From TrEMBL:
Gene3D superfamilies: 2.160.20.20. This is Hedgehog/Intein (Hint) domain-containing protein. NCBIfam families: O_hepto_targRPT. It holds the Pfam family Hint_2. InterPro entries: AIDA, Autotransporter_pectin_lyase_C, Hedgehog/Intein_dom, Hint_dom_sf. Residues 739-880 form the Hedgehog/Intein (Hint) domain.
Length: 971
């Protein structure tokens, strides 16, 4: 067929040809194909024009070039009703598909172009261009080799493949579905466009700009989808390891990662994502509701990235690095959350037994809730707040604080520290070497349940409190400032506890345990015989400087030691067999008990305090018994008791009913007067049991008390023989008129007259042997001192006033100065002793009522003797049962001694017979008015010396006394 050199019409009416095959439409010439016409294999060069319309058709048209002068391109115009197929356009040629026109199988080759307002099927853009404009419709378009396709508003394309480097499909409008970018090809989705069912594969890329939407994209091998600010991806799937979705300010939702990576940059937002495998990288963007549920699937949260409500399981993980944040993640079976340097996890939930959260150097996890599973904190990581209900948080470095552990959840601490933790029922802390715990609160019933609590196997624990059944168990390490409150319990072995406070709780110390400065406070009661706050010390354990208040207790069993404890207000310390109490201080209402086999190595018992060393118990040190304190011991207790203060009568010695030697040394006796001195009570020894008292000639500290049963009691009292302690058993409390000298009486000795208060044992006094009329020197064996207080409400001779015998009252120079003696003291006359009271005349010898309180003395020689006092013959002391009232720079030990009698032991007979005494009285009376300083009576008072006191009734009956309430004892 020849070329077409002029405008030619085929089809349309019967006069026109219906087919045209081959030839070239020359420049400026048009070929018009109308109804019924068919143009086949026709070419058009520059300026050539083919118009197919009104049911005309063109097949295998070839368009090339354009005029170099006027740049008129070869053109195929497919108008309404026209059809063209397999057209090729190159070198600037142009295919125009108008509304209503249809093409298929076209190729826009190099430099060629196809613009579609109508319909184009199976279009290939091979280094050329194609445009789908308003109203245009395309199917299965392919761009390659640098080709370019533009889709505009109103265009619709189903099936798009963009392949090759520098090959683009720019979708700025219309609707596109089933698009594929491959081998470097790019699909660009612009503002307002939604592209559905698209894919990127083999290096292909999908670009989503602001306002663009990529829906149901599949990103395969080396495929990439970039979603920029304002762009969106909906329901994308990544299916290859090297598939990539980048959110650079854009959004993606309902994404599935079967493999590959999603990178979320600043401003990017990822929601409702499932990571089956592959990874999400958050670098400044955010992700919400992400599920990593399989094998190697995970999420990396980098600087500025924020993850919310991730769900991890079956190998899924979150890795939070510096500047990244994850909030409210849920970690389940097989899932792991890693928090690295500078990363932050907030309110994570670890739900199952093999789920994990791991916090490393500089990482922070706050308010994590571990329902079941594990946590790990190491290398300066931090976990703060939250709880663990089952499982373990392993701390090998860093800090865990502000958490609650319960129901089988807890902490293994082998490095770093834990602080401000609450350990409830079933919760626990296991503390190992290099670990530290502080400010711990235990408040669960771990003791009852048999699990939980705080166990210290090493490291340090400080400022911890336990109550309501919670427990502290220490087998190694150092513990300080712990509090065991009501029903809190501590069990210590091979460890040190410093400054514990036990207020209603208990502490049990076993081998190797050492506590110091503990303070225990009870609740004031001791139910069932056991304090509600106590410290129990067993073999190999020691307690130092503990303080016990308000009915708290200390129990020391075999091999245990308590040192320097202070026991206060109703509290007590108890040493069982083999237990040792050392250097105790026992204060008011407090007590210490040492049972058989127990040992007390030193104590101070203050006013109101009490210590009991039971039979078989041992005192191996010094017990300082203060006035008002009490100590009860047995004869074999040992040690030393120092009785400090006056009126100290708190020592009781038991087990001496059948005699025995008390191996406890007693020292520190002192006192001021009778009833105002120290005392020792021999429990079970009665007044009638004692037959005599003697000092041991070979031991100056030994006192022997001989009993009626043939046995003897030996007491070791410091300097007993030199002090001349008075030994009695009890008193009846009534006034006893004592036979003795008052202070200032001058006793004649071999060295001259010496004041009675200055006499000591060993002084040689001059005695008068009236039978041989010789003076004999005898040593003083005892000097006793007492104090008397006058009972002014009684008669003069019963009140206890001292008798003053004025100088020269008996004879010239006898006495040579005023003499003061007690009323029953006897003076020696003509071989007989006469009580001073019987010579009272009210003038030269009288009761001195100016003295109502005075010290008085006994001077005892080995035998009752006549001695000289103030120049007058008188008697030495004869013990007729009143020794108990006296002391001499020692103590009045309430023991007792065998009484002597005037009939058997007196140096001269006692005489009170009127026939002998009255002449003496009258002789003295005759001298009374010549005695200087005599007492002048201002009024006459009717008196009688008749001892037969009785009453006469008005009927004449005589009533005599049946008993005397106040009695005097003869000297």
């Amino acid at each position: 067929m020849t070329d077409i050199l002029s405008d030619t019409i085929i089809g349309g009416d019967a006069s026109n040809a219906t087919t045209w095959n081959g030839g070239t439409v020359q420049s400026g010439v048009g070929l018009f194909v109308s109804a019924g016409g068919i143009a086949s294999n026709v070419s058009a060069g520059s300026g050539g024009y083919i118009d197919v319309y009104n049911s005309g058709s063109a097949v295998s048209t070839y368009l090339f070039g354009g005029d170099s002068k006027d740049n008129i391109a070869a053109t195929l115009n497919v108008s309404s009703g026209g059809q063209a197929s397999f057209t090729s356009a190159v070198d600037g040629a142009n295919i125009l598909v108008s509304a209503g026109g249809t093409t298929s199988g076209d190729v826009a080759g190099t430099g060629g172009q196809e613009t579609v307002w109508g319909s184009a099927v199976d279009l290939t853009v091979d280094a050329g261009h194609a445009y789908l404009s308003n109203g245009g419709n395309g199917t299965n378009w392919t761009a390659g080799n640098g080709g370019w396709i533009g889709i505009y508003n109103g265009g619709t394309l189903n099936g798009l493949t963009v392949s090759g480097t520098n090959t683009y499909a720019d979708i700025s409008g219309g609707q596109v579905s089933n698009a594929t970018a491959t081998d470097g090809g790019i699909v660009q989705i612009e503002n307002g466009v939604t592209v559905s069912v698209l894919s990127a594969v083999s290096g292909g890329a999908i670009q989503v700009s602001a306002g663009g939407i990529a829906q149901s994209a599949v990103i395969e091998t080396k495929g990439v989808m970039d979603v920029h600010g304002g762009g969106s991806s909906l329901s994308a799937t990544l299916e290859a390891d090297d598939a990539t979705l980048n959110l650079s300010g854009g959004k993606a939702s309902q994404t599935i990662l079967s493999a590959g990576a999603v990178n979320v940059y600043t401003g990017g937002d990822l929601t409702d994502t499932t990571v089956q495998s592959g990874i999400i990288n958050l670098s400044g963007g955010s992700a919400t509701v992400v599920s990593a549920t399989n094998g190697s699937g995970g999420i990396n949260v980098f600087d500025g990235g924020h993850l919310t409500s991730a769900s991890l399981q079956s190998g899924g993980y979150v890795h939070i690095s510096a500047g990244g944040t994850a909030t409210s993640d849920i970690v389940q079976s097989g899932g792991t959350e890693y928090v690295d340097d500078g990363g932050t996890s907030i309110s994570a939930q670890i739900l199952t037994s093999n789920a994990n959260i791991i916090v490393s150097a500089g990482g922070l996890a706050s308010d994590a809730e571990i329902i079941s599973g594990y946590g790990t904190v190491y290398d300066s990581g931090t976990m703060n707040g939250g709880s663990i209900q089952s499982g373990i948080i392993r701390v090998s470095g860093g800090l865990v604080s502000g958490m609650v552990a319960e129901n089988g959840g807890g902490f293994d601490v082998s490095g770093g520290s834990v602080s401000a933790l609450n350990i409830n029922t079933g919760g626990f802390i296991n503390l190992y070497d290099n670990g530290a715990a502080a400010n711990i609160t235990g408040s669960g019933s771990n003791l009852t349940n048999g699990n939980g609590g705080v166990s210290v196997f090493g490291g340090t624990l400080s400022n911890a409190s336990f109550q309501d059944g919670s427990t502290l168990t220490v087998s190694k390490g150092a513990v300080s400032d712990v509090t065991l409150a009501t029903n809190g319990h501590g069990f210590i072995t091979s460890a040190t506890v410093e400054s514990a406070t036990i207020s209603g709780g208990t502490m049990v110390l076993s081998a190797g345990a050492i506590t110091s400065n503990s303070v225990l406070t009870g609740n004031g009661t001791v139910p069932n015989g056991q304090s509600q706050a106590f410290e129990a010390i067993s073999a190999g354990a020691s307690s130092y400087n503990a303080t016990f208040n308000n009915a708290a207790a200390e129990y020391v069993s075999k091999g245990g030691v308590s040192i320097s404890a202070t026991i206060n207000d109703g509290s007590y310390a108890y040493a069982y067999a083999g237990g040792t109490l050392s250097d105790l201080t026992i204060n008011n209402t407090a007590s210490a008990i040492v049972s058989a086999g127990g040992q007390l190595t030193g104590a101070t018992v203050n006013n109101g305090g009490y210590v009991s060393i039971e039979s078989g118990g041992t005192l191996s040190g010094t017990l300082s018994l203060q006035s008002g304190g009490q100590a009860s011991i047995y004869s074999n207790a040992g040690g030393t008791i120092v009785m400090d203060g006056e009126k100290n009568t708190g020592l009781v010695i038991s087990g001496l009913s059948y005699g025995g030697i008390v191996n406890t040394v007693i020292s520190g006796f002192d006192g001021a007067a009778s009833g105002d001195s120290d005392g020792i009570v021999l429990d079970g020894v009665k007044d009638g049991d004692v037959v005599g008292i003697a000092y041991d000639s070979g031991d100056a500290n030994r006192v022997w008390i001989n009993l009626k049963n043939g046995h003897a009691i030996g007491l070791e009292i410091d300097k007993a023989s030199s002090l001349g302690n008075s030994l009695v058993v009890g008193t009846d409390g009534n006034l006893i008129y004592e036979v003795c000298f008052l202070s200032g009486s001058m006793i004649r000795t071999s060295a001259g007259d010496v004041a009675v208060e200055n006499l000591t044992i060993g002084h040689d006094v001059v005695t008068f042997d009236w039978k041989s009329n010789k003076y004999v020197t005898r040593p003083v064996v005892w000097v006793g001192k007492a104090q008397a207080t006058v009972r002014t409400d009684l008669q003069d001779d019963e009140a206890g006033y001292p008798v003053r015998i004025l100088k020269d009252a008996i004879a010239e120079g006898v006495p040579y100065k005023d003499m003061l003696i007690t009323a029953e003291h006897c003076l020696f006359f003509e071989g007989k002793f006469v009580p001073a009271r019987m010579l009272v005349n009210g003038v030269s010898i009288f009761y001195d009522k100016s003295i109502t309180s005075y010290d008085y003395y006994h001077v005892e020689t080995e035998q009752h003797s006549v001695i000289t006092a103030d120049g007058m013959l008188t008697e030495s002391y004869l013990d007729t049962g009143n020794r108990a009232s006296f002391r001499q720079e020692g103590t009045v030990v309430r023991l007792g001694g065998k009484k002597r009698t005037w009939a058997d032991h007196a140096a001269a007979p006692l005489c009170v017979e009127r026939s002998f005494v009255e002449p003496l009285f009258r002789a003295v009376e005759l001298r009374k008015n010549s005695v200087a300083g005599r007492c002048v009576r201002t009024e006459d008072i009717e008196t009688t010396l008749d001892p037969d006191l009785h009453l006469i009734t008005d009927t004449g009956a005589t009533l005599r006394s049946m008993r005397h309430k106040v009695r005097w004892s003869r000297p």
